[in-house]
Amino acid sequence: MLKHKDGYILKPIEKPDCGEREINFYQDLQCATDPVSVELKKLVPKYLGTTTLQINGKGKTHLKSVRLLFFFSPLF
User: Domains of the chain: which residue ranges?
Assistant: First the structure.
């Protein structure tokens, strides 16, 4: 993962098939209105689309998302 200077996170798409499913998941979740998806939206990073970066002369697609911070308290 990479962090853009503007603060968002760039996650590389490693495998085309898996990456396409992941992109579709985030796109579908953005416009979903069913109660389960609405709750799920609260738990996943906000999807900002994709971008292509040139790495070693090759275009590499990355997911753009807002960074989430989770703070966990100890159970004991």
Answer: 2-65
